[in-house]
Design goal:
Keywords: Lipid metabolism, Lyase
Family: Belongs to the enoyl-CoA hydratase/isomerase family.
Number of strands: 2
Strand order of the largest sheet: 1-2
Strand content: under 5%
Number of helices: 9
Protein name: Enoyl-CoA hydratase-related protein
Organism: Nonomuraea insulae
Order of helices and strands: HEHHHEHHHHH
Helix content: 40-55%
Biased composition (Basic residues): 1-13
CATH topology of the largest domain: Lyase 2-enoyl-coa Hydratase, Chain  A, domain 2
Oligomer: single chain
């Protein structure tokens, strides 16, 4: 993916953010315990953070299949769409995310991931460097300027700002 300035961005932001939309007739299951297996790969920890503990325990311990309406209720899935529309919906969500300031999107994703198990006070401390980096970027000037001028916004995703202020990042490429 390239910005207007011709710079290459990393992975599409939507793929980093949330589970994709799911067809309404697709069952959701985590039936590993039914087969005497442990749901590895962070499944237990992630599920219990994403939805209420009691719902996560029910799904994980019984191994039962749930339909999408039930999965949507506690927020286990973000979008339940008619069958055959999941890709189209995911592309729409990805386009909405991609249209936003890439540095801000990246910082939000990092903050969401890195602060999930922290107290609010700890999370505020983690987001402070992101705030400083974003507000010091050319993109943070461009967004409000474009809004005020009632025109399309063009973000440059300054690689130097991203790598210097966000810490570890893939090498520019």
């Amino acid at each position: 993916m390239r910005t207007r300035a011709g710079r290459t961005t990393r992975r599409p932001a939507a793929r980093q953010c949330a589970p994709p939309p799911t067809g309404s007739n697709r069952p959701l299951t985590n039936s590993r315990v039914r087969w005497a297996l442990y749901p590895a790969g962070g499944g237990v920890d992630r599920l219990s953070r994403q939805i209420p503990y009691t719902v996560a325990a029910d799904i994980m311990l019984t191994g039962r299949h749930i339909d999408m309406a039930e999965a949507e209720q506690p927020g286990l899935v973000g979008h339940v769409v008619p069958d055959g529309k999941a890709l189209e919906t995911a592309q729409g969500i990805a386009a909405s995310i991609a249209a936003n300031g890439p540095l801000a999107v990246e910082a939000v994703v990092r903050t969401l991931r890195n602060t999930a198990a922290m107290s609010e006070l700890q999370a505020f401390a983690v987001e402070q460097p992101h705030i400083a980096a974003i507000f010091g970027s050319d993109d943070a000037k461009e967004g409000p300027r474009a809004f005020a001028e009632k025109r399309h916004r063009y973000f440059t995703a300054d690689e130097q700002v991203s790598s210097d202020r966000f810490g570890s990042r893939h090498a520019p490429g």
